[in-house]
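Methods — Computational structure assignment.
A single polypeptide chain was analysed. Its primary sequence is given first, followed by the predicted tertiary structure written as structure tokens.
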Amino acid sequence: MKKCVKLLFEVQDGQKILESFIADQAALFKIEGIGQEMHKDSIQLFICGQEEQVDDFIDAMYVGKESIQLKNIKIETCSTDRSYRGVFRIVE
């Protein structure tokens, strides 16, 4: 079943993290959607995928990486009728 969520969180070097860690995780879990740095150190994601893959992606965001810790993660469900055409895009 398809699942779509909106994530909002804080992280240092937001654009760099978006282009590396988050984009890599999206590819790993076959996530489609968009990611954008909203303000300095604040990132917003709209993601869709199979329910289990979305859950695994969210888990990866919580776990982070040795040098990357996301803070104040907020998650909301959103409409599943959006189409991102199977890719994860970074909006600047």
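Note: The chain has a mean pLDDT of 91.
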